[in-house]
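pasting for ref. prot 1 ->
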Amino acid sequence: MSAVVEKIESEHIGGVRLNGWEITSCHMPILNNTSIEEYEKELGFNVPEMIFGNNYLRIHHLTSGHTLELQALDALKMVDTSPQSAKSVQVSIAQGWSESSKRNRSDITDVIKPFDWTLSTKYRGTSTGGLAFEPSKTGIDYAKLMVREEIHFYDENVLYEDDLGDNGISQLSYKVRVMPSGFFVLQRFFMRVDGVIFRIYDTRFSTRECAFEDHDDEDLSLLNNISFVDGAMKDPKIECEVAYV
């Protein structure tokens, strides 16, 4: 007998309960000015132009209480704020990025730390309820993912995005797919600094970087296409983790 699938649908939240799991995805507007001030005071640096701080993906195991959540604030807490962080990726405006960004936001008066202006993060999600991950040599079963199954729930969502002062793009987003046999989640950080570098961090978990000059002969419209850049980048560094519920 097939498992009972319970749909979750409201104005901002969609999802499903299936086989002891509850998977929900929330879509909300960008943060208002009051919330932005609160975020910037907590983080110590300017938040992205578009920050969807109330968006989230939540994976919850109903019996154990183990939960994994993807959300913007915790991801931004992992942005580098070391003394040299603002110079980690150099373009003509990089050195003065933190100060000029601060001047453009005169309502924020106590944000003084340097920070990685590309907003790069290696966030892997926020675990609660005792959920713990450990290193593993077992990767993703791609053959299983290619098996055709009914899709009970699918969604994709953006947590934050910034155009890096018209120098490229920085975006953190996720996709989720729920099938009868399981679910698949991909969180992706994508960054492009024009004329300098591409960077992709996938939480599966792989990291890839390549110089812009490796692809600067391509049509610019292709370099704006995250899927194209993803396919063009080679030799990812792979790190696998596993958690048990």
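and prot 2 ->
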Amino acid sequence: MRQQPKEDGVIMYSNASAGEFLTLAPLGLSATDIYPAFVFGALTYFIIVFCNMLVLTTIAVSKKLHKPMFILLFNLPISDMLGATAFFPQLLLSIATQNRVISYPACITQGFLVHFYGTGNLLILTAMAYDRYTAICCPLRYNTIMSQNNLIRIIIAIWIINVVIIVTLFVLVVRFKVCRTNIVDLYCNNPSLLKLVCEDTRLNNYYGIVFIFVLQGGPLLILIYTYAQILRTCVMTNHTDARRKAIQTCGTHLVVFLILQINTTFTLIAHRIEGASPFIRRALGVSILIFPPLLDPIIYGLKTAELKQSMLLYLKRNLCPIKL
């Protein structure tokens, strides 16, 4: 690739971006921080993978968990591990080599997986909210509405919608040639990739605005409606135990949803505000890839009684030594 003279600190390139190397935002680690940061990052990634695999395996092997609620939940650890794997291995490599350089194809791949994870989580959590609404507000019709065929259709729709939206998002990005090489975030994502472009990105910006309103506003409206109906039903019911269980299950779901929703919304908006603090934007951006994958299996595992009991039974059966 032929390098052109620098203009205002920006290196201009004349050919396509496919062979370009980009530089991610510095981690700001001192020499004494490298080893603890690597150990902490590796341990966090191990915990994320272990906890999510535990939830996956428990749901897969426990027949009593083969219900719509848990089958929908089964998709969440898959998405969480995808997001964590898009971020942590590259981060750990950067810490170990003290090198923040990443190839353009690798950056596109990381950005694609990060957005695929975030969108997938929102869609899965929205489907789970609908499932809880149906179970609590329409119990007599629940088995009909959430039948096996309908459940399969919902899951397939989640992943097809996710693929179509994110593929379109990144097809609009890769059509450009980059004229800058510095990624403004700690990992690659659509907004930071667009900031490498010197061409007209209005179509991308319009799509991004629609993306934010549809994927952030749509699930939020569905959540508000379903939880308002659930709260109304719980207040009207005379069964104290049923009310307690419903509120506990829905409260767990609400916490998980809001953690992802708030962080994602503020991160995307911060990219569109000139005066937004880069530190806060990066901190919120990283938190999206750490806290949901780390907290989702822990929150659901501790707060969902059936899943908790099955997980403990699975661990006892497989980790405890066999007594002769």
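The chain has ten helices and four strands.
The CA atoms of residues 86 and 110 lie 5 Å apart.
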